[in-house]
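task queued by scheduler; priority normal; single chain, no ligands, no partner chains; default sampling; output format set to structure tokens
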Amino acid sequence: MMILKKLLFFFYLFPFFILADNRLKTDGNHLGKARVTLKVAIEEIGYSPYNYKENGEIKGFTIDVLDYIKANSKYDFEFVTLPWPRALYLVAEGKVDLILTLFKNKKRAKTYHFIEPSYGYEINQLFTLADNNFQYNGRLKQLLPYSIGTKREFSYGKAFDSANYLTKLPALTEEVLLKLLLTRRIDMAISNPYVFNQLIKKNNVISKVQAMEPYVAKTPVYLGLTKARADSKEIKKTLG
């Protein structure tokens, strides 16, 4: 069915129309088929603008994509809130079926199906305290003297991930990264600016934290599907 390809094609042509009413794009081929529920891993904090909670409701571009797939296939989606490392593990084991906004690399491709094409881009940026005067012009080797807080089991693009000469200190969540930064236990944190800026605002520390430019990476994101299901290839073919 190539649902995702079809959706993104029309979205690029008519960005304000395609997601307005999924029913207008239903092809009807799925009608009468038994519904299959897929478990989808999401994080409590969300990942704006792709998925986030608003008044208790899960919203975002990825959710719109899943709603479109639901309307045009036999698949329903059940959301399971998990920490990122746990989500990766459970999807790899087949206990959860899908993970959102997943970066693609050779190691992950052995464990997960990546639903082609990518449906967006992820930006990652460095943050430090406002009273620091660190220099960074895009060359990762400039960061050699500093400790950088990262999110455990998270990918920040090929260049940063392979920069083994850097001092990277993993933490479970972005909230922990912010605390480590504010208490000077790390020199910098790397994160999605949408997510990290929300945390900075929520904690009323806008004057204490500054973003560093340029961005570290702009990386395509995918829906990641477990390979542990017997019908995983069928799901991949249908969703993509």
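post-processing summary
- The chain is about 30% helix and 30% strand.
- Residues 3-13 form the longest helix (11 residues).
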